[in-house]
Amino acid sequence: MRRARQDMIAETRGKLIAAARQAFGTVGYAQASMDDFTSAAGLTRGALYHHFGDKKGLFQAVVDQIDAEMSVQLKAIAARAPNRWQAVVDEWIAYVEMALEPEIQRILFRDAPAVLGDQSQCPSAKSCIDGLTASLAALKDEGLLIDADPEALARLINGASTHAATWIAGSPDPEATSKKAVAGFRQLLDGLLRQPPKANSEVNA
Length: 205
Known about the structure:
Blueprint: H1 2-27, H2 34-40, H3 45-52, H4 55-79, H5 84-97, H6 102-116, H7 123-141, H8 150-169, H9 174-190
């Protein structure tokens, strides 16, 4: 009985998140109507309020879902790299380039900063910074990285990538802006190297 109730709760939440994600990704947060996506989910406003509190709470759930999906994609990209340094470069360049995807562009890089404020202290951001700090510390120990504090560099890289993605998302020509942002970001990362990485160094050693 308890399991059935948990399944019902998960199903209701899933329907609301899916309907809201479609609306937020299509027309944006401000124009998305709670009645529209509760109707699309076959539910009531009462269900929305019960599970998410309000429209902002539901938007946060959508952001969290997209963020989790991006994290899986980025980790897969990093895992395919031939060495630890290339894993860092590939993962963070890919993050910047994700700002070209319409849904991510609108929800994460246009609306989320305005609706939710600074997300730099959220658990997912902390996890990204912690992972990057560990990678940079290992690269420093291997003698590949300049003599700088790994955590400071990780936070600066994170901030630069977020700013670059926001720049792309708000640009009248996202494609052209992405090319400039990625080229500059790549130069920024390359400037942290003391020497080129060995092709056969392990990504997760």
